[in-house]
Specification:
The chain has 219 residues and is of the alpha+beta class. The chain has nine helices and four strands. It folds into two domains: 87 residues, Glutaredoxin, CATH 3.40.30.10; 119 residues, Glutathione S-transferase Yfyf (Class Pi), Chain A, domain 2 (Up-down Bundle). Helix content is 50%, strand content 7%.
C-alpha cells in the first residue's frame, strides 16, 4: 500500500510533522508533495479540491478511482488509518483506558493548543506584516502554548516514562514534540515543564525524529 500513497504537507506544519513521524516509525515510504502555506498555494483551487479548508496534511490514495475516497484529511485520522492498516510500531496501547489516555493527551495539543496558533487565525488577529503585528501574533501564540503545555504537563506526569506514556513513542508524543518545536520558535522556554523537557530530550535521540523533523523537508 505504501507505493500508492502521496502526502501533501508543509515542512513547518506541526500537523504535517505528526504524519511524517508516524510514517517514519512504521517504515512506510510515500511520495511527498510540498504545499506552501505562505504564498497562497494552500488556498489554490487544486489544493482545495483535496481539502476544502486548504489545510495540510492530506493523504492521497493514488489508485483510488472514486474521488470521494481519494483523499483523507486531518492528521489524527490519517495516523489512526495508518495504525489500523499498518500495525508495525504501534502508536496506541492495547488496553482501552490506556488508549483513551493517550488520545486525550494527543487532543490536548491537537484540539486545545495548536488550532488557535494556526496562520489563518493569526492573520485574522493581526493581518499584515507590520512589526507591531508580528509582535502581537507572537504574544498571542505564547499565551496558548503556555496554557497548553501546562495542561499537558499535568495530564502526562503520572503515567509518563521516557515518553508521554511509558517508554515507547505514542500518538501523544507525535502531537507534543512538534508543538514543543513551535514553542521554541515563539520563545517559550521549557523550564516550567520538567516532564515535557524530559520527553523532548528523549525524542531528540530517536531515529524517527530525525527522519521526520522539519529541516529535512525544508524546500
Amino acid at each position: 500500500m505504501s507505493d500508492s500513497l502521496r502526502l501533501y504537507h508543509y515542512w513547518r506544519s506541526t500537523s504535517s510533522w505528526r504524519v511524517r513521524w508516524a510514517l517514519a516509525l512504521k517504515g512506510i515510504s510515500v511520495e511527498y508533495v510540498h504545499v506552501s502555506l505562505l504564498d497562497g498555494e494552500s488556498e489554490s483551487e487544486a489544493h482545495r479540491a483535496r481539502n476544502p479548508f486548504g489545510y495540510v496534511p492530506v493523504l492521497e490514495f493514488l489508485g483510488e478511482k472514486n474521488p470521494e475516497r481519494r483523499y483523507l484529511v486531518e492528521s489524527l485520522p490519517i495516523i489512526e488509518f495508518l495504525e489500523e492498516t499498518m500495525p508495525g510500531a504501534p502508536l496506541l496501547p492495547k488496553e482501552p483506558r490506556d488508549r483513551a489516555h493517550v488520545r486525550s493527551l494527543a487532543e490536548a495539543i491537537n484540539a486545545g493548543t495548536q488550532p488557535v496558533q494556526n496562520l489563518s487565525v493569526q492573520i485574522e488577529l493581526a493581518p499584515d506584516t507590520d512589526p507591531a503585528h508580528a509582535a502581537k501574533r507572537k504574544a498571542w501564540a505564547q499565551i496558548w502554548i503556555r496554557r497548553g503545555l501546562a495542561a499537558y504537563e499535568t495530564l502526562a506526569k503520572a503515567r509518563s516514562g521516557k515518553f508521554s506514556f511509558g517508554d515507547s513513542l505514542t500518538l501523544a508524543d507525535l502531537c507534543l514534540i512538534p508543538q514543543v518545536y513551535n514553542a521554541a520558535r515563539n520563545d517559550v522556554a521549557l523550564t516550567e515543564y520538567p516532564t515535557i523537557s524530559r520527553i523532548y530530550a528523549n525524542a531528540l535521540e530517536t531515529e524517527s525524529y530525525r527522519a521526520s523533523e522539519p529541516e529535512r523537508f525544508k524546500p
